[in-house]
């Protein structure tokens, strides 16, 4: 069978990594690239740099990767759907929930595969964490907390830290716990002189009574990417910068003092750093999307899921603006 013909629009910081992986995975040929701003990282190779998505479509594609700035996702995605081209669209799926839902409908109506580039789902630590939670290794889940902090990225200009960074944590939280967001409370800050927020602290409720908290900013001089899940049997800590997963078990301490035995809480137990294979998350994401296009079993972030993430993002922004809890309906 002939290789799939893939195209890429957007040759910036993420686009260069998409190009590398499109050339590396089996069963795919990168046949066309496009960017109105040119090729700053020199990833086109011997391919001409096309000016727009229309020219990309004319190359005759099976699927395309959209790595444009967020504000252009909806337009490019709609044109690809109208042309019958499957698409992997970088996160956030669109600039608004309305645009995201319209994209999901367009691909569904056309019978096409659409996916969102929420790369953290394919991090080995989180893949292992989801399997372990599903197997009941923590028992009843109590809380999930994420921290995603680091320096300001000059390349991001059209959305704030909620849609750019917190969207990762919203998606991974719902995915690893297999719960949905129900209630959101958040506070944002504007410290870098831009129109969009650069810090958010959010407290949320998910289905089944699970609580979550998220600290996200562009104001910290060192990168941090942590996911901590606490349950009745202990705690998992995933560091997605290193793809490490560590288990902290509850201890078992015999209390001899009868008067305080009834108040005994959790004590420190065993600590285990788990050995897991660590493939590149973006490579895994591309392999799953290729398989989805081929009709094989795969695990992609659907456009509907991408739209749901945006809905929670906008609830965080609304909560901060109105000083109220916002329900996800």
UniProtKB/TrEMBL annotation:
<feature type="domain" description="Gfo/Idh/MocA-like oxidoreductase N-terminal">
    <location>
        <begin position="5"/>
        <end position="118"/>
    </location>
</feature>
<dbReference type="InterPro" id="IPR000683">
    <property type="entry name" value="Gfo/Idh/MocA-like_OxRdtase_N"/>
</dbReference>
<dbReference type="Pfam" id="PF01408">
    <property type="entry name" value="GFO_IDH_MocA"/>
</dbReference>
<dbReference type="InterPro" id="IPR036291">
    <property type="entry name" value="NAD(P)-bd_dom_sf"/>
</dbReference>
<feature type="domain" description="GFO/IDH/MocA-like oxidoreductase">
    <location>
        <begin position="127"/>
        <end position="236"/>
    </location>
</feature>
<protein>
    <submittedName>
        <fullName>Gfo/Idh/MocA family oxidoreductase</fullName>
    </submittedName>
</protein>
<dbReference type="Pfam" id="PF22725">
    <property type="entry name" value="GFO_IDH_MocA_C3"/>
</dbReference>
<dbReference type="InterPro" id="IPR051450">
    <property type="entry name" value="Gfo/Idh/MocA_Oxidoreductases"/>
</dbReference>
<dbReference type="InterPro" id="IPR055170">
    <property type="entry name" value="GFO_IDH_MocA-like_dom"/>
</dbReference>
<dbReference type="GO" id="GO:0000166">
    <property type="term" value="F:nucleotide binding"/>
</dbReference>
